[in-house]
């Protein structure tokens, strides 16, 4: 008797497949589902027999999905995500909406967190779970609704929030120090430059290189360098007067406005990178997600064009204005 092509396989077989396909490991899938590795292997074989198609290419100590396997994994991820949302609504119909947002540590601490109280005040029934990480999360698999990602300009990976521009910043106390004045960019050779370490394997240039090249000081050698692992650490060091950091606007705009940091030279160079908002497609069904998305876009449009305090125009070593 011919099988109905639309008949669904048993849910436990699909669950075993989704875990094995996500991990590309029968052993890890077995541990996650509290069964033996041989049980997972039997369930996958039963599912392949039911579908009449191979879902994995079994290699020596490795698994890879076939084209049919990739197609089924996409469908399973969407199905299980919707099931989780439905179960959550049934179990806790009056529960508060909890949104999961992932972004970089620098944007989280310097731009997003200072602004979040205005969102939570306007939307008292919505809680935000914030993940600050350099790791680019898989929104559907890792359970995130939105992401703000740091990407090269022109990417098609989301809605542009804002472009980035760069200029040196330091504490007001350091800017007033007449023993090592900061009158023009060439004066940076008497100061400590604070930079963020570039991750291994990254193609990004050293943080100060583009700005120094733009002002004609590509060969400048500072008094010393202070390297930090995160951008928010670099800004904390600048606030403490430990040197001059390269300020990324709009991340440092609030600190410039409050005069906690100052820009010793006016003018900023455009960065080749920017921030982009990505919304997990199935999460758009949540009104709370749309509320947070709209709020983020409004914040980016309305509060990123502030100009830093003016002191002195940046000049090249020959004295010409560069901006």
Give your account of this protein's structure.
It contains eleven helices and ten strands. With 323 residues, it is of the alpha/beta class. Helix 1 (11-23) crosses helix 2 (26-33), helix 1 crosses helix 3 (37-51) and helix 1 crosses helix 4 (67-91). Strand 3, helix 5 and strand 4 (126-132) form a beta-alpha-beta unit. It folds into three domains: 11-91, Orthogonal Bundle (Arc Repressor Mutant, subunit A), CATH 1.10.10; 97-161 and 274-302, D-Maltodextrin-Binding Protein, domain 2; 165-270, D-Maltodextrin-Binding Protein, domain 2 (3-Layer(aba) Sandwich). The chain is 38% helix and 21% strand. The strands form two sheets. It has an eight-stranded mixed beta sheet with strand order 4-3-5-10-6-9-7-8. A two-stranded antiparallel ribbon has the order 1-2.
